[in-house]
Amino acid sequence: MTSIEIGLWVTGTMLVMVVLGMRVAFAAAGAGLIGLVWIFWAKKGMDPAQFQWALGVAVKTAGQIPHGKVASQALSLIPTFILIGYLAYYAGLTRALFEAAKRWLAWLPGGMAVSTVFATAGFAAVSGASVATAAVFARIAIPEMLKIGYDKRFAAGVVAAGGTLASLIPPSAILVIYAIIVEQDVGKLLLAGFVPGVFSAVIYGALIVGMALIIPGFGPAVKGFTWKQRFASLPPALPIVAVVVIIIFFVYNPFGGDAWGTPTEGGAIGAFIVFLMALHHGMRLPELLDALVETAKLSIMIFTIIWGVLIYVRFLGFADLPGAFADWITSLHYPPMLILVCILLAYAVLGMFMDAIGMLLLTLPVVYPAVMALNGGETVAAADSAFGMNGTMCAIWFGILVVKMAEFCLITPPIGLNCFVVAGVRPELSVQDVFRGVTPFFVADAVTIAGLVAFPGIVLWLPSLA
Amino acid sequence: MAGAASVLEDGSLLSRLDRKLLKLEWGMAVLSGIGAFVLMCLAVISVVGREGFNEPLRGYVDWIEAAMPVIAILGISYVQREGGHIRMDIVVGALGGRALWLAEFITTLLILVLMALLVWGTWAHFDRSFDFAKPNWSRDSSIDIGLPIWPAKLIVPVAFSVICARLALQLWGFGRAFVLGLERPVAVPLVMSAAEQAAAEADHMQGHDA
Amino acid sequence: TEWNVSVWGKRRAFTEHIHKLADLVAEKTNGEFTMNVSYGGLSKNTENLDGISIGAFEMAQFCAGYHPDKNRAITVLELPFLGVNTLDEEVAVSNAVYAHPAVAEEMAQWSARMLMTSPMPQYNLVGTGEPRDTLEKMDGMRVRATGGIGKAFEAVGAVPTSVTSSEAYQAMESGVVDTVAFAQHAHLSFGTINEADWWTANLNPGTVNCPVVVNIDAYDALSDAEREALESSVPEAIDYYLSNYGELLKKWDDVLAEKSVEKVMISDEELAKFEEIGGKPIQDAWLADMSAQGLPGQELLDLVRSTLKAQRGTN
Ligand code: NA
Ligand code: NA
Asked: Are residue A214 and residue A126 in the same domain, yes or no?
């Protein structure tokens, strides 16, 4: 049996275990371990006397990975970004943001919903996790929308969709994970997410305004805030801006001088400022401990998937499966753009059934080299490439596309985690209600993704300056 | 995909062992969380030192790499106890009664076998970096300030041993539920419906926002 | 026989001898003995020795400074101011040290056997702003340098700041470090030269040492013909590496001109001062450290010096 056939068998086994309900991290690690044993044993001609040797080598090879991969400076961003989100909550930033957005934007048709979208976008600038963002805003924003007569399903849909912005707008745990898997500059990727995130929020806003104009009784505009009230709402929300500015300055100095440090440091400084604000806002030891344990739980969950999948990826390396898949993709006689669109559609389907992080970790080791090969290779110049951009830019562009797909999967049935969370926060809403309410946003996301594919400049403008 | 679950308790030996182990697991998870906090403080010290006093934290990267296994791995058993590791529950969610306990027993057994093998593998990884005869007992050191790496590597097999104990308890719990045909067994994470799960998540956020 | 070879990064001047070796061996054995070179697929760069020790792959490259405690004996080759001037001299001293029993014994603990070196030129600085061409100007300079070179800079008041090689560009751009010490090929492949205003042409503080090793069991399992093909190809592979790197160095002045990077020459007086502060004391500290551990430090250092003398005598 060739190593590619072994690779396909092992991958199939893993998918079966995942579907049968084995925890994803352990299914991936287990499949990887089986694959390694198989590869090493096959090397000795499957001689029964050599099985023990093969098992030992495979187990020791797999045993390097949890420590080896986790002890990484770049990955240290993940717990930091998660911690920021929890601390921001205790610092009262969520309420302040929503209040400011309401006073400034609620006069629009569908104004309260538009305010919710932009408040989530603002919170996204300190929160690295979509699910946490949706949970927080379901509590604050939905009651206010219901009070003035919004359809409860639509109100829930706004929050579920708005929550997904947290993973495009930096900081973002999932963008960091992408950067690590494909070995690209974390700072540039975080920077690249900013404009598409805002673009996405604007499309959501436009969709809401459009619906409010067409559908009678959709939800009234809220007028009557004075300019004085508007400006009074700004100072409590300002700390968010300060944190955003600091994180951005640590990645890229817009005034052309030196940036202030590395993204790792920027994330940590941002977290520290929010920590001080939370202290000022009344957070004490029990709340801090709670925030820390929640951060640990979410981080460990993510890291377990990371090292589990990387054991599987190490097996793929020995089986040379990514190289083989890339060769196959590039040998297809279809236009590269058509293949890319097919890959994105495949992500949309896969995303209906899978968790975002697990999906990226499982697929990228094989799909990413293929996409890079499709464009003409890692070192291709823009002029010679299939997508009209050099290798680095293609890696960034594809990363944003894939992360947007992963966010899309958070709101699609049957398994859309954001919708579950929103339904959980509001007892009056069933999961079905939220899925129905979020459906219009599929259109908005389709428009956003089409826009990002057709106009890569939206993604690449900011990182190309840095 | 579902994560969170609830664990029932009673006065049985299994449940008492569950709660004893939980205390240890909780402590390890708290250490993980404190690790994340320390990471943040390290960065602040490093930046302030560099910008303010031209005296950056020596070996900043080495210290981060030493702290990461504490943050990312030490509390792994606590997450397993709470049923917090992500899985797809389309199939499991549709099962009930003995069929469910059998399915849970089998996947838990597979995970136990895997983690037992990984205790061996990660111990070997530690063992290669450790030598009683060498200064600092070290046979592997970090790139910048030559920190011995064996303590960070030792964390992994320790954390994995604890999760093995946890998995063994869960096997006992699922096996008991299967044999006795229990409805709501103790000491194992029970699958919550999507609604229950989200309610738990939301619950967590209740009452903190001001 | 099919061997897996673990290296890291992208294919570059630093890995060309391995590809040449694979070609030669396959040719000499009529395709009986082949090597798959994997860039990062089989191991993390700091764990290549572990992989060799386990037997996961048969051949690998690593750098001594990544993990000094794994390979104490060969850290002699990373001491500052050894006075190695050319790549040929670097090959000669590496070969001599690799052949020393203390080195062979330490490698054997990892089931590893030295095959060849990956000679690197001196790690000169690139930097931004005003050139740091005197020791006074180096005081307080934040420099990305590891191992013995980092210690040498520290001795003159500079501040070694840790960033990984792949983060070096970002660190320089963001002002986390003022200067980066690398070999020329690394200044090119990690992009630090694009950010630089100047490069020190003659500071020559030292270099790093990156051997290629094979797993002992795999080596012993080779047929006589295969082992002969492997051993006889090493000198050819090294020659190829040297001529390839030589081409790169020839183009270096053009690269500097193209990126408008100033070539900074440091005065002999300053160099002598630097060597006095950053050379001898650090070598002495290393000697004390080695002898405390029962390693023949003095013998290794003398070996480097005598080899250097002999090498110059033959030229
Ligand atoms: Na975010
Ligand atoms: Na979904």
From this structure: yes
Amino acid B84: pLDDT: 76
Is the Cβ pair A422, B33 closer than 8 Å?
A: no
pLDDT in tens, C214-242: 999 999 999 999 999 999 999 999 999 99
Q: Average pLDDT for residues A430-444, to the nearest whole number?
A: 86
Same-domain check for residues A219 and A290: yes
Q: Given an 8 Å threshold on Cβ–Cβ distance, is B86 in contact with A79?
A: no
Higher pLDDT, B88 or C5: C5
pLDDT in tens, A290-345: 889 988 988 888 788 778 888 988 888 888 777 777 777 777 888 888 888 888 98
Q: What share of chain B is helix, strand, coil (3-state, %, to 5)?
A: 70, 5, 25
pTM for the whole structure: 0.85
Q: List the structure tokens of A415.
A: 């398994």
Partners of chain C (3+ Cβ pairs below 8 A):
A, B
The ipTM assigned to this model is 0.90
The DSSP annotation for A104-165 comes to: HHTTSTTHHHHHHHHHHHHHHTT---HHHHHHHHHHHHHHHHHHTT--HHHHHHHHHHHHGG
Indicate whether A105 and A31 sit together in one domain: no
Task: Please check whether residues A47 and A193 belong to one and the same domain.
Answer: no
The answer to whether residues A4 and A153 belong to one domain is no
Instruction: Indicate the average pLDDT of chain B.
Output: 85
For chain C, give the number of residues: 315
Residues of C in contact with A258 (CB under 8 A): 173-175
In angstroms, what separates the C-alpha of C192 from chain B's closest C-alpha? 19
